[in-house]
Design a protein that fits this description.
Layout: H1 7-43, H2 52-70, H3 79-93, H4 97-118, H5 125-146, H6 150-162, H7 166-173
Helix pairs in contact: 1-6, 1-7, 2-3, 2-4, 2-5, 3-4, 4-5
Length: 182
C-alpha cells in the first residue's frame, strides 16, 4: 500500500472517487426526477389519474362512438369513416408523447370530417343529438388537455437538466429531455 502514500496517486484516486460519486448520485437523482416528471403525463399533476393520457383515452372512446353512429349512415368503405377509425387506432397504439400528439391531431381532423359529412344526411333525432354531443365531448377533452400542467413540469425538468452540472451529468448518464405534448 505504499502506492497510496504517494500524494499524486492519492489525489488522483480521490478525484476519481468524487467524480464517480457525483455522476452516480447525480445521475440517479436526475433520472428519478425525469421519471417523476414523465409520470405527470400518465398519472396527472396530483397523481389522481386526471392526465393528458386519460383525456386521450377518453377521446379515443368518443371517436369510436362517433364512428359507430356514422357507420349507420356511411358505407363501411367510406374513406372518411375508415380514416376516423384508423386515427383512433393510431392514437390508442401510440407510445411516445410526440406520437400521441400527432395521432391526437389526426383524430381531430378525421372526427371533424365525419361530423361534417354526417350533416349531409337525414339523421334520426337521437343520432343528431349523438353527433353534436360527441363532437362537443372531443372538443371538451382537447380543452382539458390544453390546460394540463404536464408541459410546464416538462419545461421545469428540461431547464434543470440543461443547467450546470446537470447538463454534463445527463450527457454522461444518457438522460434525455422530456417530450412536450405540443
Amino acid at each position: 500500500m505504499n502506492i497510496l502514500r504517494k500524494t499524486p496517486v492519492a489525489w488522483s484516486i480521490t478525484i476519481v472517487l468524487i467524480l464517480v460519486a457525483i455522476l452516480g448520485l447525480g445521475g440517479s437523482k436526475l433520472s428519478n426526477q425525469a421519471e417523476q416528471a414523465a409520470q405527470f403525463f400518465y398519472q396527472g399533476i396530483n397523481n389522481d389519474g386526471l392526465s393528458i393520457n386519460h383525456d386521450l383515452s377518453r377521446r379515443a372512446d368518443t371517436a369510436y362512438n362517433l364512428y359507430t353512429v356514422a357507420s349507420r349512415y356511411l358505407d363501411a368503405t367510406d374513406s372518411q369513416l375508415t380514416a376516423l377509425l384508423q386515427a383512433r387506432n393510431q392514437l390508442t397504439a401510440a407510445e411516445s408523447i410526440a406520437d400521441k400528439y400527432t395521432a391526437n391531431n389526426l383524430l381531430d381532423q378525421s372526427a371533424l370530417a365525419v361530423y361534417d359529412k354526417l350533416a349531409e344526411y337525414q339523421l334520426s333525432e337521437a343520432d343528431q343529438g349523438y353527433r353534436q354531443s360527441l363532437i362537443t365531448e372531443l372538443a371538451s377533452a382537447n380543452a382539458t388537455i390544453s390546460h394540463d400542467g404536464y408541459n410546464a413540469k416538462a419545461t421545469d425538468f428540461n431547464n434543470l437538466r440543461n443547467g450546470f452540472p446537470a447538463a454534463l451529468i445527463s450527457k454522461l448518464c444518457g438522460i434525455d429531455e422530456l417530450e412536450y405534448f405540443r
